[in-house]
């Protein structure tokens, strides 16, 4: 059984969906939920599901990225994860961290990559007049939001959409996509999933 650490910064709705899926005959189990934000809503949700939690506050490491990332590694490695899932983890990581978990780290991003890396993806999709939006799960490499694409789910942009209404529709798709991709990844399958 693969051990999965999940990194969050916020409400953790993707984390909950991943953890809910990792039961029964699933090839993986959650071993840790870690947040860089101490009052992230996802921490309480993880505790309620009986998953070990940890907090490493980036604010304690003002400007010291190396110190922050070493603290992350020190908090994560005792839990011996085989796979790391970034699920709304809102810190950019350097090669110090990424190389340590090379080939074992997944991220979900709220756009149809390679479009709209970085922030404000929904506002940018609306401004561009896109007919389709969606989300991507990809392997994490040193270049932000540019690793190999493992899965993608599309949703329509509807007339009158705001960044908020579009984000909510995309989030529903994230909740379908991420568990499906993690399941395949834990089984060693590396093709691209389209939902
Ligand atoms: C999700 O929409 C995720 O795709 C996005 O943050 C949200 C987290 O929601 N991630 C990024 O923007 C990464 N740059 P959640 O905490 O409810 O899962």
From TrEMBL:
UniProt-recorded Gene Ontology molecular function terms: phosphoribosylglycinamide formyltransferase activity
Domain Formyl transferase N-terminal: 2-182
Pathway(s) the chain acts in: Purine metabolism; IMP biosynthesis via de novo pathway; N(2)-formyl-N(1)-(5-phospho-D-ribosyl)glycinamide from N(1)-(5-phospho-D-ribosyl)glycinamide (10-formyl THF route): step 1/1
Pfam family, one: Formyl_trans_N
UniProt-annotated catalytic positions: 109
Binding-site positions, (6R)-10-formyltetrahydrofolate: 65, 90-93, 107
Entries under InterPro entries matching the protein: Formyl_transf_N, Formyl_transf_N_sf, GART
Family listed: Belongs to the GART family.
Functional summary from the UniProt entry: Catalyzes the transfer of a formyl group from 10-formyltetrahydrofolate to 5-phospho-ribosyl-glycinamide (GAR), producing 5-phospho-ribosyl-N-formylglycinamide (FGAR) and tetrahydrofolate.
Listed name of the protein: Phosphoribosylglycinamide formyltransferase
Gene name per UniProt: purN
